[in-house]
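Handout, section B. The chain below has 453 residues.
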Amino acid sequence: MRDFSEIYADFSPVAGAGQSSRCAQCGVPFCQTGCPLQNNIPDWLRLAAEGRAEEAWRQSAATSTMPEICGRICPQDRLCEGACTLEQSGWETVTIGSVERWLGDMAFEHGWVEPIRPRVERGQSVGIVGAGPAGMAAADRLRSAGYAVTIYDRHDRAGGLLMYGIPGFKLEKHVVQRRLDRLAEGGVRFRLGVDVGGDLPFGEVRAAHDAVLVATGVYQARRLTAPGCGSTGVIAALDYLIASNRKGLGDAVAAFDSGALDASGKRVVVIGGGDTAMDCVRTAVRQGATSVTCLYRRDRDNMPGSAREFANAEEEGVVFEWLAAPRAVLGEADRVTGVRGQRMALAAQSADGRWSVEPLPGGEFDLAADLVIEALGFEPEDMPGLFAEPDLALTEWRTIRTAGHTKATTLEGVFAAGDIVRGASLVVWAVKDGQDAAAEIDAWLSGRERAAA
């Protein structure tokens, strides 16, 4: 809680092998089916248990372009570890994520992570818009296949939310940077500080490459609509997290230095119950907030964020107000003094298992606050308007529409992957989408090459 270093330590070799040996080697590996990447988890756990760490890492890297990152930030309690047979039978899960992280870090330390050296240069190029996890995963696979790859990103550093959105206590930035360095050393070109659709027209990107992958993510924040939400002291979660991460990277951040995006000495209320809300409350604790409260309209069992993240936040002193929704932000235009909340009750369960809520009569209450952080989720930007491509079709949720189960958009040679297709989701799904998109782009370009021949 005193700094932004990662809170989990790596295994010793004996402890790592011991934890790996707990795997029951099930005939039907539910952990694997619970993983979006379908990682061969029992295989690399067995190898790690036998002391064959390099072979174990190569098994994990065969299906994932960034296993040491996913091992850190995946909500394993909802994925592989939640599906573990030991967990289901009451014996506590094998801690798959921590083993994956341990193997990945060992791979970099011992030089097992090899540079990208394509066997042959294909003579075709792919442009990737967005340097986040989907773009990074696609670039890794495409460059390995011999394509010239250029990644465009509006930020001054690559990595997307891995670099600027996720706090260092979950993912230290050198872990991301070494993956980016591997891409650059392998020949991937980065054009940073470039706003595709702004200072660089999307049409120019299409003209410069044989295929284009859109992997921009979704970063348009949902905002409060309650009275007083426009007051000074009401801020968006991503603005807050980016400022904190930039300070950690040594940047000058005027809005942080002025106190606008710094929780130090303030009473903080975070509105939302997802992983972004957990990142905000735990960041505020480390910045020295006098109190941190999380306001969420459903109960603990229906919180969308990781149970592990919630447990960590609670241990760090965060107070949770369950079944509570914001009704108004209190104070003046230039200063927030509190949040007026409304007690809620679960009403009815929908087909997807989510409960609707309804207000309890007479359930109003006030919370003191100097800083209110909105962590209500994210929506896509207007991609057809931004790219000046009216033929780029969208879904009813304004994400990019792709054909069937493919990554192909309605623009020839343009593919899309990650959150801009599926909506705000997990990093591991972005990695899977990026890898799948790379395979599809490779097949499409190879087909065109054969047809031209």
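Note. The first helix runs from residue 13 to 20. Compare this with the example in section A.
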